[in-house]
Amino acid sequence: MTTRKGSKRQASAPTSVPRRPHLLAWLQNSKNAAAYIEVALTEGDSGDLLRALRNVAEARGGIARVAERTGLNREALYRTLSKHGNPKLKSLAAILSANGLRLSVRPETSQERRAA
User: Fold this and answer.
1) Domain presence at residue 107
2) In angstroms, rounded to a whole number, what is the distance separating the alpha carbons of residues 63 and 98?
3) How far apart are CA 46 and CA 67, in angstroms?
């Protein structure tokens, strides 16, 4: 790549590109996928949670497979799992179930309370 003044600078791919295949391979394991989603939940950003759900869905057969298993429209599922999606609890439970996961609640530990 050449700048206006003629000096050359090397174009590089974003650092996240090489990691994506490794992330998707890692997410094929149910325990890893559950831990990944749990971390996204603890971060408290719904966009992060939806991105995590989408990554898990892509790693475990793709959005089309999840749409088929949940009975949700594929295009609607893409919108639901977008950064600004707002899934209903029923849809969220169906998406998790299609990926071999489930929603659960557990008591917060005293260590978790101190960290918050």
Assistant:
1) no
2) 10
3) 20
Q: What is the pLDDT of residues 56-83, one digit of tens each?
A: 999 999 999 999 999 999 999 999 999 8
CA atoms within a 13 Å half-sphere pointing along the CA-CB vector of 31: 0
Q: Read off the pTM.
A: 0.75
On whether the CB atoms of residues 77 and 88 are closer than 8 A, the answer is no
Side chain identity, residue 71: G
With beta carbons less than 8 A apart as the criterion, state whether 4 and 19 touch. no
Q: Is 60 inside any structural domain?
A: yes
Which pLDDT tens digit goes with each residue over 8-28?
555 444 454 558 899 999 999
Residue 95 lies in a domain: yes
Residue with tokens 């206006």: 4
Each residue's pLDDT tens digit, 77-114: 999 999 889 999 999 999 999 999 998 888 888 877 77
